[in-house]
Queue: 2 jobs
Job 1
Amino acid sequence: MERKNLPNPNLIFPVPNVKTVTYVRPTIKNPNIIVGDFTYFSDVDFEEHVTHHYDFYGDKLLIGKFCQIAAGVNFVMNGANHKMNSVSTYPFYIFEGWNQNPPSITDLPYKGDTIIGNDVWIGQDATIMPGVKIGDGAIIGANSTVASNVDNFTIVVGNPAKPIRKRFDEELIGLLEDLKWWI
């Protein structure tokens, strides 16, 4: 039997008559933001929520398939980091009139790419800090600030976000990790 009306990951608005839920991938313009099929955002301008993402850093935001990203979620990228080993953390070199030479890119703090696994649920108004890696099946509580890596199928909450429990027992987590249903 042939299935009709298969889900289309290229739709921007996948919920009929609702213009506040968008599939993210077809809206992306920045080549350093890569998002898997069927990941949705409960808002309309995802890239507006990726802050301090400057081309000269070259860092990437990588998000897997079937993620659920609530309204108000922000991804802070490496451009937000300030040098902390100078007399001042103030970035004089970016402002007109200070005549400061910018530091080389290797002298600036760099946490790496931000990587979100598959089937990750990120609650409303959460903030994901630069270079964080969130594992498959993780849940990020509303209003959490994620500043360190999150293991697969782990629920984290708070500021800073801390693990409160695993979603499943280790045996089921192992099976889900092997299954990789989202592929």
Note: Residues 39 and 112 are 22 Å apart (CA to CA).
Job 2
Amino acid sequence: MENDWSGKNTFSKAPYETNENLICGRNPCLEAVRSGREIDRLLIAHGATGSTVTAIIAKCREKGILIKEVSGKKLDFLCADANHQGVALFYASHTYYEVADLLKTAKDKGEAPFLLICDEIEDPHNLGAIIRTCECCGVHGVIIPKRRSASLNATVAKSASGALEYVKVARVTNIANTVKELKKEGIWVFGADMDGKDYTTFDFSMPCALVIGNEGKGIGPLVASCCDELVRLPMFGQINSLNASVAAGVLMYEVVRKRNSK
């Protein structure tokens, strides 16, 4: 289990900013996992034991669900003092897909694949806004990591304004490895980075994927090294970066513009 407790300050950090999509209690959690519902992550309080806890953990491990060990006080906070019995889980508002499903969507439409990869976007409002723009731009799917990322909770669904009903989202263990696999499929991967080349100089009509990085750190070094090209948006003011969802929107519409000008 991954220890995620580092003090009270973590209460305000993603992905635990809201108790939406949260189930508390041993039996409710066990039934949720057994039912086949899409689970984002399981939270276990330090020292929680018992046959039901063991069964929940075993089932989550079997399904590859992320398990985090946290403080009992943290669970008290998240569950609004409900009787969580040392166990809680976050479930997804929508179904996750495989990367192959995203590529099939493009193939079925007879279009060159156009994907959006979010490298540790933690703000659910940003992720929802990105998904909304993806739907408007005809993106065939969004890829997010399992760890250190906003998941498909109610806040994301609300910010997406209905777009989650039409945009497939795949969740992967490792973004860098996924980028490498996409390149093997003939997809050009462009990462948004301040040290990249002017984004207007590229022809995005080929099968492509855009990588948008974390709100504060940008794209991780390993992911950046895996991209075919790094692209930047020119800045003319005193602030040297855009909101992640805004940057994603500008780049997506450049892909649309280039494809429609052919």
Note: Confidence is low (pLDDT under 50) at residues 1-18.
